[in-house]
């Protein structure tokens, strides 16, 4: 597994070593020991999630607060997405900045997102199956969200606004200015 740091503390891109042969491919999609050795981090994952979405679906930007904050290791099993995170860690120099990466079943990249980030993704392929590990359980009451198109965040989502499909909940999320007061 190859590990690449980003300009955000502990936000890490992981690319697995893939063994291709005449049958297809094999790779270790997650291994505790290797992850810890290469990243120096030791999240204890307790929940795996999988979702499927069609072209233009945007889920996010989501996070859980307080003791229920979640670190996530995210990847795409089928299709392609634009994965986006926003740093909500007030003490970091990257506070309020966003980071985007294309994750796909082809590139097999994984993004490790530490606690303290809002996370979302947009489906760029006809269909995408998204998979992620979390180091804390889902807790509805601790769930929060951030408006995906807040001009203050300036995220380039790459698709025309008319092509986007969002849940009602995600269409009505507060902006960064509001969230900032609550952090
Ligand atoms: C996230 C989650 C949802 N649910 C339920 C609640 C709801 O009825 C249904 C769909 O939930 P949502 O609409 O919140 O699903 P979704 O919009 O896919 O939410 C996810 O978005 C991405 C971007 C993330 O980063 C995740 O942490 C999570 O917030 O599934 C669980 O039971 N467990 C969970 O862990």
Automatic annotation (TrEMBL):
Site feature (Participates in a stacking interaction with the thymidine ring of dTDP-4-oxo-6-deoxyglucose) residues: 138
InterPro entries: RmlC-like, RmlC-like_jellyroll, RmlC_Cupin_sf
CC annotations in GO: cytosol
Keyword Transmembrane attached: no
Annotated Pfam families: dTDP_sugar_isom
Catalytic activity: dTDP-4-dehydro-6-deoxy-alpha-D-glucose = dTDP-4-dehydro-beta-L-rhamnose
BP-aspect Gene Ontology terms: dTDP-rhamnose biosynthetic process; polysaccharide biosynthetic process
UniProt keyword annotations, A-Z: Isomerase
Cross-referenced CDD domains: cupin_RmlC (cd00438)
Documented EC number(s): 5.1.3.13
GO MF, one annotated term: dTDP-4-dehydrorhamnose 3,5-epimerase activity
Recorded metabolic or biological pathway in which this protein acts: Carbohydrate biosynthesis; dTDP-L-rhamnose biosynthesis
Active site positions: 62, 132
Family of this protein: Belongs to the dTDP-4-dehydrorhamnose 3,5-epimerase family.
Assembly and oligomerization: Homodimer.
Role, per record: Catalyzes the epimerization of the C3' and C5'positions of dTDP-6-deoxy-D-xylo-4-hexulose, forming dTDP-6-deoxy-L-lyxo-4-hexulose.
The name this protein goes by in its record: dTDP-4-dehydrorhamnose 3,5-epimerase
Gene source species: Dokdonia pacifica
């Amino acid at each position: 597994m190859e590990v690449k740091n980003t300009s955000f503390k502990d936000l890490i891109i992981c690319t697995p070593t893939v063994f291709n042969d005449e049958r297809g491919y094999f790779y270790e999609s997650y291994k505790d020991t290797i992850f810890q050795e290469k990243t120096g981090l030791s999240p204890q994952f307790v929940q795996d999630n999988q979702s499927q979405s069609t072209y233009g679906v945007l889920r996010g930007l989501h996070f859980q607060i307080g003791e229920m904050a979640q670190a996530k290791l995210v990847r795409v099993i089928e299709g392609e997405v634009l994965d986006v995170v926003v740093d909500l860690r007030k003490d970091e120099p990257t506070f309020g900045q966003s980071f985007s990466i294309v994750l796909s079943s082809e590139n097999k990249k994984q993004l490790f997102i530490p606690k303290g980030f809002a996370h979302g993704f947009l489906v760029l392929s006809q269909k995408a199956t998204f998979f992620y590990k979390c180091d804390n359980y889902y807790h509805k009451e601790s769930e929060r969200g951030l408006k995906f198109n807040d001009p203050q965040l300036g995220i380039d989502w790459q698709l025309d606004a008319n092509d986007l499909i969002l849940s009602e909940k995600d269409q009505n999320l507060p902006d960064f200015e509001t969230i900032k007061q609550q952090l």
